[in-house]
Every structure is written in C-alpha cells, then in structure tokens.
Backbone:
C-alpha cells in the first residue's frame, strides 16, 4: 500500500502517525548513516565515485611519468641492451614512430600504411573539438624553411605531436613508394627529422654513385653528421636493395644536401630493408605522452643536475661530519671573561666545539644541565667555562671571609682524570689572579692535600669521591668551605652514579648546600642513570643530547672489531695484533685495556719480556709513577700503554688503536674505553677480544658498528715464546692476576650468579697464564665471594 493512499484514506491521522506510516510503508530506510537523507546519501556516493575516477586517472598519469623517468635514467646509466627479438611494449617515441611507418612503407610499398595501432586516420582534433584536415607535409616543410631557426624548433615540436596522426597522410603523400616522393620531399622529410633531432634519419649515400638507395640509419647519439660516424653506420646497417632513385632527382637531392652543410648524409641500408621492422614491437602511446617525451633532453639535463647536486650534498655531508666537532662560534663571541678567552686563545682554542656551543648558554643561565656528547669532543672545557664564570661572579659579590669558600666542586671517577681536569683548569685560569684549583685524589699524602688547601687559593676543587669523603669525614675543614658551594659538576656522570660510587656520592651530596647549580656530563647516559640523576639534579633540569635521537655514541671514523677465542689464545692474539699494528702504522699509539690492575701488571710483564715497547698504568702503581707515564704517553708516539680502567677518561692525543681484553663491565665502559681513539674527529680502530662464554656481551652493543675480525694464523713459535716468557714472570704476579680476575668476574652479576661456571672459567684462565693449578683463596675472601663450597675452589688453611 502506498503512503499517499493511507494519507488520503485516513485524513484524521496526525503527523506523527503519518511519519510512522511512512517508515512502515516505505521501501527501506528513509534515513542513512550520519543522519543523511536519501538525496544527500546519493549525492555523497556520486561525489565519491567522481573522486575515485579522478584518483585513478592521476595514478595512471603517475605511472606513466615514472616510466618516462626510469627510461631517462636507464639512458643515463647504460644498462644491458634490450633484446630486439623480444616484443617491447614501452611507449613509442616520435622518432621511432616515424621510422616504423617508413619501414612499413618501404617493405610493402603500401598504399595505405595505416593499421589499428597507429591511431586515428585524421590528424588530431582541434581545440574546438573538430577534426582537422590531414597534414600537408610539403606545406608544413615549406613553412618550416621560411621560418627562422628558433621557430623551427617550435615547429618541429608541433610536428612531432602530429607524427603519429599523419601515418595515413604520410603514407599517401609520401607516395606509393618513396621514390615517388621526389627528392625535394625526401629532403624536406630529412630536414624535419633533423629538426626533431630524430635518432633515425633518412639518408642518401652520396658515395654510392650508381645505385642510390634509400635507407634509415640508426644513430644513437643524435644526428648523422657525415664523415666517420656515417661510414660506421653504413657498415653497421645492412644495405637495402630496392627503391632506386632516378639520377635527376639525385642531383637535385645532392644540391639540397650540400646546402645543409654538415647534415650531408649517406645511403645506408637498414634493418627495415630486411623487414625487421615489419613486426611492430612497440606499442603506440597516447599523443599527450609523446608531447611529454619531446622534452626528453630537458629532463635528462634536469636529472643530470639533480644527480650532481646530490653527490655534492653527499660530499658536503661527509665533510661536515668530519668537521662537526668544531662549531662556527668563537670563544670571543661568548659571554665569558676576556681573561679566559685570552688563555683559550693562547692554548690554541679559538672556535668552540659543538658541545661547548650547545651547553654554554644554558650553563651560564644557572640552570641544572645534563649533557651527553661523544668522547673527545671537548666536554671538559664545556663545563670549565661556566665553572670559572661562577667563581668570578661569586667572588665579585662576596666580602672577605675568614674561611674562603669552595665555589665549584668537580667530581670524576678516576685520579688520572681528576689530575687532567685540574691541569686544564689551570690553563684557563692563567690570567685570573687569585683564583686557584686543587685536586684531591687518592694515592697522594692526605697531609699534603690539607696543607695546600690551607695555603693556596682554592675556589675550584677537582676530586675523586673517595678522597673527598676522606677529607669530609676527617673534619679537615673542607665541609665548612663546601657550604659556600655554588656549582657541582660530575664528569663521567654515569660512572659516578652507578653502584660502585653510589654510596659515596650520596654522602657527598648530603654535605653540599641544596641551593646550587649542578651539571652532569658524560659520553654515555643510560636510562637508569638518568633516573637516579635526581640525586644530584633538580627536577626541572635541562637535558642536552648532542648526539640527537638515535645518534651513535661512538665515532663513525673509528672502526670497531671483535673476536671470540678461548682464554689460552688471548695473549697470543693480542701479541699478534700489536705486532701487526706496530709494523703497519708508522706513528702508532696503542692502549690495551685489561679487566683489573693485576691483569694489567701481568700482561705488561709478559710483553716487556717479549720486547714490545710497552708502559703500564694502573691503580697498584704509585700516583707519581702513573702521572709520569701518562705524561710520557701523551707526548710520545710509537708506544703501547697497558692499562686498567683508570685510563678510561684520559685524553691521550692521536691514539691509533684501542684493545679491550675480556668483557667490559658494561656498555658504557666499552664506549668510554673506545673513546680514547678517534678523538677530535680523527680516525682510529677498536678491537674487543672475548672468550666464548663472554659472547653474550655482544648483545649489549649490538647497535654499534662492530665487525667480526677473522682469526689470524697463530704461529706455534710465538706460542712457545709466550710460554717461555710467562715462566720468567713471578708466580705471585700470576696468582694475584688470577685472584683479581675471579673478583672482577664475580662482581659482574650475569656471570657471578652461576658460581660453578665462574670457577670453571677461572680455572681455564689460570691455565692460560701458566699456573699449574688454581691458587687457593683465603677463607674470608671465598666466603665474601660466595665461593667457599664450590667445587674447584681451594681454600687456604
Ligand atoms: N674548542 C676547542 N678547540 C680545539 N680543541 C679543543 C676544544 N675544546 C677541547 N679541545 C680538545 O679536545 C680534546 C678532547 O677534549 P676533552 O678531553 O675535554 O674531551 P671529552 O669530551 O671530555 O672526552 P671524554 O669523554 O673522553 O672525557 C682535548 O685535547 C682538548 O684540548
């Protein structure tokens, strides 16, 4: 029943009733999703359909453009020549099309060369939509001759757009046989082809006097210009034996050809003559595409330009990577004391490094800052500059006090690093009278420290946590002086905040005023460290990461290698590596990192026995000795430094190779050690040697560009020599090495958890250093390490 009939038959019904009836009666829902009515819904779908159609057309266009681009590229980068026997469905260029038509014409002498693939019989429609007249080639050519050079090209372009259309005209007008065309038309056609810069040309072989033959010549590089290239072509292309021309035509033609100067052509026979072009192998493309293709040379030029620009950008990027350590900003442009700038200039520092530029303003503003920057990029000066400015500012505002306060406290994990930083601070303070820096590190006499603190100016202290705590706990008066602290700096902050130093750090921070500025610097700042940084930093601190998101923590110019081999091969592998490197690199400078001080001592003794040019630095050596060796290693070349972790933050210039024997404590330690080479944007190499059971560490550094180093041949003679030299080393040194090894690996949680395996590995190590049996442990030590009842562990009575 229809709605209207209900309405008519029930006039008393209310509007609501009618609406209800409407729903009940109607064919399907009257409202559509989104509250649209039927017409809105319909219009929406029509619109969508139109958009889809447009999108498809656009896609088609893009596909074509991509194809044209790939063709151009393939022409720029010559690849394998396509197989001519295979059908080719690529778009046909105007030149190819002209040639194909002419070929067909010559092969068949056909009246009508049109076939379906050639497109419409008429020339293209005019703008008004009407179909134009067939093209009069003769007229067109005549017109062309009367125009000047610039308009010729435009005409040629215009002509090219017609070429595929005039297939029929062409075939008719170009006669039923090319010879009927007459020399003038042939000339005209040749000229048109030339103007079009076609790659195939009608050629008349002037050298062939008797039988002048018509042919096409293929010239991949452009126009046929006579001479050598022509003869090459004529030999390349087989001769055509049909369609002879009469001599009068020939003379006329010669004249025309001569008039055209360099475009003098020869008759050479073509593949077309042999009927190879009979089969149309290329699919015809729409006219609008052919128009695009006419701009081929411009596109080629654009792509060439693009390629060269890109390669230039690539070079520039490599250069900037090399020079990225230095920024364009100079120290004298910054807001630092002119005395400091003078000292910097005298030390040879004019431009800032990137990290110095990135951090200075934030540090000078008095904010808490946490900085991550690669090793060897100038972090020390980055924090020393604000430190000096803080002292200057604080000194200028304060009255003379009975106990002069310490304004800046710099903490570092190692003595060597502390000494290095205080030396660098002294360089910058050269022209600041009355401002002094002192270092408080272990291994020196406590009383001497105290005397210096009392007698010398000391607004800046560089200390290791252990020695500073000694001073605080011994009530040497330093606690009172620290109450005036303005700035706390942590260099290698990740190391200072990890478990080894945590307790000391907590105690120290408790003795410092809360109202202070804190700066944390390191080359590595893992997430855990960032979390516990609140121990030192204010909540609203600034985090500056000069590496950027996902940036590598190691330098790209440092090549990194690793090798996995059993313990008993380690010493020989290191020996081989050192021998090879020292013989290949003229000004070598190598650092070999060992896990512990006693291991360092053992390796040093061995390589000294083996007549390598080695030095040692580790915590078991007196501080004065270490300072002397450090200085020597800084200043010399052709030296090998065997060291423990005490050298991990040291600035030794021009180190060529860093070797790490055994598993590093963590990823940070690996990166810090590796950072001794490739400093200030220089090149370097790193080598990590692991035992098979230590391989799991590679997972921790899997994002770094480490390459596996193939095993070099281990000579038996070297092995024998190592054995002999090892025998000469005192057993106590080897035993200490064993004990320290056990202690070190026991402290690495991942290894120390499985005591039985640990002891097994320790025994392998004992054998590798020439111990007949693993030395016994003191009961107390064994208990402390949880090794008392582990099989394979001997306890001293
Ligand atoms: N502005 C500068 N211009 C030239 N050289 C500089 C500049 N700043 C620092 N250097 C030099 O760069 C080298 C590395 O500096 P520094 O030891 O401070 O690096 P770092 O980033 O602290 O390294 P690490 O993380 O290993 O401790 C030093 O030899 C230093 O003299």
Residues:
């Amino acid at each position: 029943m229809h709605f209207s009939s209900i309405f008519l038959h029930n006039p008393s019904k209310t509007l609501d009733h009618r609406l209800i009836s409407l729903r009940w009666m109607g064919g399907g829902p009257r409202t559509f999703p989104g509250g649209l009515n039927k017409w809105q819904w319909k219009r929406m779908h029509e619109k969508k359909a139109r958009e889809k159609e447009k999108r498809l057309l656009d896609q088609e266009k893009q596909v074509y453009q991509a194809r044209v681009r790939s063709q151009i590229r393939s022409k720029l980068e010559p690849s394998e020549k396509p197989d001519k026997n295979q059908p080719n469905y690529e778009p046909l260029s105007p030149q190819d099309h002209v040639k194909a038509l002419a070929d067909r014409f010559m092969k068949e002498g056909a009246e009508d060369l049109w076939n379906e693939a050639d497109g419409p019989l008429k020339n293209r429609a005019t703008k008004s939509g009407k179909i134009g007249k067939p093209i009069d080639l003769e007229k067109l050519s005549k017109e062309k001759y009367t125009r000047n050079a610039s308009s010729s090209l435009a005409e040629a372009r215009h002509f090219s757009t017609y070429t595929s259309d005039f297939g029929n005209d062409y075939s008719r007008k170009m006669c039923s046989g090319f010879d009927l065309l007459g020399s003038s038309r042939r000339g005209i056609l040749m000229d048109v082809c030339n103007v079009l810069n076609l790659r195939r040309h009608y050629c008349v072989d002037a050298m062939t006097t008797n039988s002048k033959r018509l042919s096409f010549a293929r010239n991949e590089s452009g126009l046929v210009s006579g001479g050598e290239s022509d003869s090459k072509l004529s030999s390349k292309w087989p001769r055509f034996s049909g369609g002879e021309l009469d001599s009068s035509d020939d003379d006329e033609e010669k004249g025309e050809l001569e008039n055209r100067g360099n475009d003098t052509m020869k008759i050479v026979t073509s593949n077309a003559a042999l009927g190879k072009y009979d089969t149309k192998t290329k699919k015809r493309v729409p006219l609008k595409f052919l128009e695009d293709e006419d701009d081929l040379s411009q596109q080629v030029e654009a792509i060439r330009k693009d390629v060269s620009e890109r390669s230039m950008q690539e070079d520039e990027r490599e250069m900037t990577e090399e020079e990225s350590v230095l920024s364009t900003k100079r120290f004298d442009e910054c807001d630092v004391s002119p005395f400091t700038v003078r000292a910097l200039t005298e030390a040879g520092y004019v431009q800032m490094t990137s990290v110095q530029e990135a951090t200075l303003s934030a540090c000078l503003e008095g904010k808490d800052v946490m900085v991550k920057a690669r090793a060897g990029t100038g972090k020390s000066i980055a924090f020393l500059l604000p430190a000096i400015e803080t002292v200057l500012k604080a000194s200028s505002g304060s009255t003379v006090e009975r106990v002069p306060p310490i304004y800046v406290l710099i903490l570092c994990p190692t003595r060597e690093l502390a000494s290095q930083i205080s030396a660098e601070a002294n360089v910058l303070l050269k022209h600041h009278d009355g401002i002094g820096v002192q270092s408080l590190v272990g291994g020196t006499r406590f009383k001497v420290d105290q005397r210096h603190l009392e007698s010398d100016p000391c607004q800046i202290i560089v200390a290791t946590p252990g020695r500073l705590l000694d001073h605080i706990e011994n009530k040497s008066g330093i606690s009172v002086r620290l109450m005036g602290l303005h700035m706390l700096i942590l260099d290698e902050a990740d190391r200072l905040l990890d478990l080894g130093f945590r307790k000391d750090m907590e105690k120290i921070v408790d003795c410092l005023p809360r109202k202070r500025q804190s700066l944390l610097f390191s080359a590595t700042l893992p997430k855990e460290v960032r979390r516990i940084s609140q121990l030192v930093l204010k909540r609203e601190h600034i985090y500056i990461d000069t590496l950027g998101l996902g940036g590598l923590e190691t330098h790209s110019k440092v090549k990194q290698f690793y090798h996995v081999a059993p313990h008993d091969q380690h010493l020989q592998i290191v020996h081989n590596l050192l021998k090879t490197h020292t013989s290949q690199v003229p000004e070598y400078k190598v650092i070999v990192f060992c896990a512990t001080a006693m291991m360092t001592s053992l390796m040093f003794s061995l390589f000294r026995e083996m007549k390598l040019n080695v030095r040692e630095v580790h915590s078991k050596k007196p501080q004065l000795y270490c300072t002397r060796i450090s200085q020597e290693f800084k200043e010399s070349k052709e030296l090998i430094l065997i060291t423990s972790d005490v050298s991990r933050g040291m600035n030794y210039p021009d180190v060529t190779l860093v070797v790490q024997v055994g598993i590093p404590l963590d990823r940070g330690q690996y990166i810090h050690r590796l950072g001794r080479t490739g400093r200030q944007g220089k090149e370097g190499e790193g080598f990590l040697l692991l035992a098979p059971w230590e391989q799991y560490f590679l997972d921790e550094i899997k994002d770094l560009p480490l390459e596996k180093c193939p095993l070099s041949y281990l000579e038996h003679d070297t092995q024998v020599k190592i054995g002999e030299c090892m025998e000469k080393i005192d057993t106590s040194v080897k035993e200490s090495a064993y004990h320290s090894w056990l202690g070190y690996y026991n402290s690495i949680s991942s290894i120390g958890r499985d005591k039985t395996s640990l002891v097994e590995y320790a025994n392998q190590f004992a054998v590798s250093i020439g111990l007949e049996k693993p030395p016994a442990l003191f009961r107390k030590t064994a208990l402390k390490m949880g090794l008392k009842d582990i099989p394979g562990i001997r306890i001293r009575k």
Observations:
- Residues 545 and 551 are 9 Å apart (CA to CA).
- The longest strand covers residues 558-564.
- Residues 349, 351-353, 356, 375-381, 523, 649, 651, 653, 675, 679-680 surround adenosine-5'-triphosphate (CB under 6 Å).
- The chain has a mean pLDDT of 75.
